[in-house]
Amino acid sequence: MSAARYRRFLKLCEEWPRDESKKGRDLGTFLRQRVTHAFREGENTQLSDPEKCDQIYESLARINTNVYRERFPRTRDTSFTGVTVEECRMLLATGNMQKMDEEKKGLWKTLTERFSTKQDVTPEKAPENK
Question: What is the predominant subcellular site recorded for this chain (predicted)?
Answer without folding.
Answer: mitochondrion
